[in-house]
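Explain the record.
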Amino acid sequence: MADFTERRDNRRIALGPGHTIRFRVGGRAFKDIRITNISGSGLFATVDRGEAGQFEKGLLLEDLVLDHPLLPKGHIRAQVVYTLGLAPAAPAMAFVGMGLHFVEMPEKTQEDLNNFVAAAMGEA
């Protein structure tokens, strides 16, 4: 039986096309990675299925930058906390989703991100 228990600890906002991130893993640079939602503590990104196998739970992403003019700048460290669509039992999709948790970011970046999310939710 599937477990659909909510595990995320912050409210998040959905993002439209044009919201991407870039980061490094093991010296390799990734860019133009689409993100679909974001909160003050993490985000959900989609990666090409061919690249997805290297994004296992626990993997650290270095120098993550939010590539959108309205999102704060600053280099973030994030960790893969889950993948969606990678399991062999899952129907083959062109993209695989991954949940990322922010583990370290500059204080100003965190403040700006929290303000962005609050404003998007109509709380600012």
The helical segments are 49-52, 107-120. The radius of gyration is 14 Å.
